[in-house]
Request: fold
Amino acid sequence: MKWAPEAEKAIKKVPFFVRKRVRVRVEKEAAAEGKPVITLAEVQATQRRYLNHMETEMRGYQLDSCFGPSGCANRAVDSTPLIPRIQALLDEADLLGFLKQTVSGKLRFHHELRVTVADCPNACSQPQIKDIGILGACRPAVTDNACTQCEACVDACPEHVISLGDHTDGPGIEMTGCIACGKCVAACPTETIAAGRTGYRVQLGGKLGRHPRLATELPGIYDEEHVIRIIQDCIDFYKAKSRNGKRFAELLSTADIEAYGVTGRFPDSC
Reply:
């Protein structure tokens, strides 16, 4: 649907964590009224209705994702099977019911648990500032296939952690600087560099607000089943500790996250 310039300008002022939801609502309401172009008036009318009935729009959580397989050539994994499993887990947890029981006063979107999935380290869905951030990862591995020294991998690596030796050596990868984007794997024509460990990086405890904090990453790359277990552990911790709408990220210290990365459980989680 076509948007007038002033309408586009107005929608960009809506907080990013509800902007997509508001945009969809504006287009739906404009279509129902038979309006071919969205103007500033339509945006303002939808915003008023949306804010006045915020509680009816809430699910208790926000689950976001990036463009995925249909819109991005940079993805390290295809998270299409994972996202509905996460949503089912969040629905089963009845986080909206939990918030209604523990929050005094009206519920607002900032009370919701925020989970996001990005198919690559470009992180368009902003996992670094969400309660739970999940990023697709493909760790490269050097195989026995002969390297032709074409330098395709060197050119493809945004982190500049790949180097070539003489004509008998394969590529050298500085793994401490590798962010597992998989670009070198896709670029190598001889499969001298192939996909090694593939799965997801997990980051916990990011938030904005008065005291912003970037999420802390758990060590390693996790398969789909392990990601689901981590999210379940986070939900259990959140429901055990949160009162009156306190955010998951506010409940966690960096030490808590580091301990979880080592032991697989949060300290005093129950």
The beta strands are 2-3, 37-38, 61-65, 113-118, 132-142, 162-164, 171-173, 193-204, 216-217. The mean pLDDT is 88. Residues 138-198 form a domain with the Alpha-Beta Plaits fold (CATH 3.30.70.20). The radius of gyration is 22 Å.
